[in-house]
Structures
1.
Amino acid sequence: MASTGTVTSSGTNIDIDSIVTKLMSIEQTSVTKLQNQASTIQSQVSAVGTVKSMLSTLSDSATALTKATLWATKTASSSSAAVGVKVLDSSLAAAGSFQVSVSQLARSQSVSSSAVAATDGFQAGTLSIQIGTWSGTSGTSPSFAAGSAAAVDVAISEGDTLSTVASRINAAGAGVTASVVTDLSGQRLVMRSATTGEAAGFQVSASGSGSGTALSSLAFDAPGSGAGMAANSVQWAANSVATVDGVTVTSATNTVTGAVPGLSLTLSQLSPDPITVTASTDTNALTNAIQGFVNAYNNINSQINSLTSYDANSKKAGLMQGDSMVTGLQTMMRRLAGTANASGTFTTLSQLGISISKSADGSLTLDSTKLSEALANPDAVKTFFMGGSDGAGGTMDGWASRFSAFTQGAVGTDGTLATRTAALQKQLDANSDDQTKQTDRMTLVESRLRAQYSALDAKLSTLTTLDTYVKQQIAQWNKSGS
């Protein structure tokens, strides 16, 4: 409430401020009523916003049931840990089983030097490391074919120890890793290709001069000669080898992709006995999607029930009790839930185990056992939700397609929820204008009341002064007469 100032009585003992304040508190009731109305409208705007958000979630869950990618989702399993399986692309993976056996795992090349003392220093020179493929490794004179990458030269300084040599190799990025292993004979340099597969083999050439241990002891360029690191055992680089339904497949790693469309196989153990790998429709993903729709439906249904409820005991109505937009939305949802498809193996939600609860709240219940039985025929369930052939040469809309279209329309920019929000906002704007008008009017009323009571106070003050004067004159006359 606006105030035009404080007026002090001129001597009549009239409490002008108190009188005006009490009178204005009566005037304030009209503004308070408008403020309460605004608060209710704002709460309704928020409630409509909540309903819209929940309906958007419901719309998304219904739309998800119309996506071909969902119904194409596959899962895969293996009968043995020796072969792992992963779905890479459900759209390519076909449902079915096949047999896999593993005859070789992918390996990297590994060689080691002869033992030297930890303090021994090497000649100055260069180790040249070339990545490529060794062939004829089962014979006495393997041959090497260099890969596309150029050889990497590693400079060795005179006096470098084996540990220093290993560090220089690792820093060169030559496609190999080096480490030092200590045994009873001393220290050995172990070189291993950084990746697996037969093309990850390597050749090491050495050239050195000066004093110290000869760099040639670290060479691996003539395996049949027994010189350098070829004097010790060699693990040759190799591809993994497996058979898929009798067809041999190889890979540079222990992961096989491309052999089976949409799937990758991970080989971890040799397995001459066939292992069964199975790909099938991912019914768990389908169940979760359908459960997600049921949950979203029940959430918004419960919210609308709360907003439109009436408690007879407390005689308190819900915020949107009697609102035709909200109740109409719920009615349409329930009507669609009970609508049947014209044809197909499944025509109603109840055949999939989804039914409207027998309680008065109108929620959906899901019978997981019945749904699982229906999903034994996933194509039929897909047709129910997505639509497809009507069996007579035509097509039909799916149940989820119709429900999605309804919800998308309701939450759209021109939908019923947007229209209701706009109407409530218009009421808020009008209420704000009314509050402004009432506040301005009250300012004028208070100003007028203060002026009136100030004038009354001034008049009473004048009469009080006159009354005092008359009393004094009468008293004087009485004294003169006596």
2.
Amino acid sequence: LILLPLLLISACGEQESSAPPPPPVIVSQPVVKTVDDYLVYTGMTRAVQSATIRARVSGLLEEMHFEPSTMVEKDQLLFVIEPEFYHAKRNEARAALNAARADLELKKSELTRVERAVETNAVSELDVDHARAERDMAEAQVMNAEANLSKADLDYSYTQVRAPFKGLVSRNLVDLGNLVGQGEQTHLTTINQISPIYVYFEAPERVVLERLDERNETVVQGVEEERTAVAVFVATANDDGFPHPGHIDYIDNTVNPQTGTIQLRAVLPNADLDLFPGLFVRVKVMGRTLESSVLVVERAIGTDLGGKYVMLVGEDGIVEQRYVTLDDVAVDGMVRVAEGLDGSETYIIEGLLKARPGRPVTPMTPEQAQQAAQRAQQGG
């Protein structure tokens, strides 16, 4: 009996001395800085203007005056389609017009003579009416000849196929020497204006309405106030970051009832011609500037039935579970905390499985953890 208390005291001392230390965790402090709000969508590039160049007259394709996949200027000559036949038709139409004009002058002179003769009763009123009808028919023949000459001039102009605007031309789809325009308007090539270039994408109606509210777009008495363009940045599949700047210039006037989205369009200068129509791209739409934003590492965010949370470490090393409210802003792997943190806290970024609310931990910064790992490696 006298030895029993001594044994119990000895056992308790051994348990206290063998208790493990608090588990180590890596901690950090939130970053507080000004960030720009943005959202990223998927879109597709499209040419500002696109023209399918077709043969509008029939004949042999005789000449080609461009290199495939190069820039062509407005009204630049692209193709020549057998002009000799249409040149002859134009001369024929011009000759017919001259003949019609000469006949009109003759009919006018005859009418003048008949009108003078009727004053002396040398001819009847019926002869006057007949001369006037001849004059009117001659005038109609002149108008018909002028129309035929205009059509002949137009057909002759179609033998020289020119670019309707400045743009990037495709390859020739028909080789020289082939008959084109016979029974159909043969497709010769395609021109796309890609500087600037459009990007079309869909955004949720809620986001679009928020952006409109931020821009204070209002219509007062039918006059729209001056708008501030919303900046966007575009990236292709192999781009790092978003290197192509632009701005939104069009918002559709109808919400898609099936998807709840609205179509938007961004215009990009594309001066280097890096983008071309049909590309799937990512569109970063810039929003408001958020000052004093609290940012935490995304991997430090946990989720349970109560919502999103982070594990904080107090000055006494005790863990606290703090529920937070996040928004859609993400910057370099960090997310913005809208509510729950003020930026002065210390939170756990690695070792979350070791942390329990109300239990102590051994906090270390990433630098301290790296130094400890190096010492352990050297000691081993």
